[in-house]
Amino acid sequence: MNWDASTWDSGFWDQPSDYFNxxxxxxxxxxxxxxxxxxxxxxxxxxWLDNYASKLPIHGPTLGVAAGDVTASVNDxxxxxxxxxxxxxxxxxxxxxxxxxxxDVLTGSGTGAMVLPTFTAPALPAGVTATLPGTxxxxxxxxxxxxxxxxxxxAIATDLGIIGAEETExxxxxxxxxxxxxxxxxxxxxxxxxxxxxxxxxxGRRGTGVWEFLAIDTESPYEDERALxxxxxxxxxxxxxxxxxxxxxNGDWTDVVKVTVSP
Length: 263
Prior knowledge:
The chain has 263 residues and is α+β, with helices and mostly antiparallel strands. The chain has five helices and eight strands, in the order αααααββββββββ. The longest helix is centred in the N-terminal third of the chain and has 41 residues, at 67-107.
């Protein structure tokens, strides 16, 4: 995207975005938590979205992202880039003319009828289409999934721009639990991110039982293929993890994740 001097001299590029702040007197916009890697200032957000759109096609396939999801997420990023960049710049540049028009209508003079200014939005960049609301929600959700991939490395995360200063040291692993159909019953697949540690120390609990050691795993995912405690009867399983390095579990436990396993 090209920028002229007036774009940057307008001053609003250094303003923090309010998209993550609670709205006043409205519940129409769903709020989300700003991710630590996503900039707070609009000008930096434009640059971040541009980088994400260019790097996702490179790293997405390595991280297991389907081609269609890569295409959709790139379009989300490019459309958000357009709205924060070219469109918002045009809106800001148009705004003073509306103030002048109001002043002329109310207190101006002249012999001809007023012609009110009309805003014309800049054209979308080639290949970019308007999206459904929630571009950042979808981008952040895809990034969360990519971070759980065993192929994710610090170099890839840095190139994508999805690691922030606050993430340099993680107190606990991050993981998700999903059921999948096995031979005799459902199994549970645990996808985890170990953030540079050697592995994770995994414990599980079923029903009202005690926590049990399940495994030390150095590569995601871990498969819990245990049979049901009572054949044919669904059960709730809980999981938690800690880091594991050089033969010793360390760090705090993660939050507990629950999943129901069926016959």
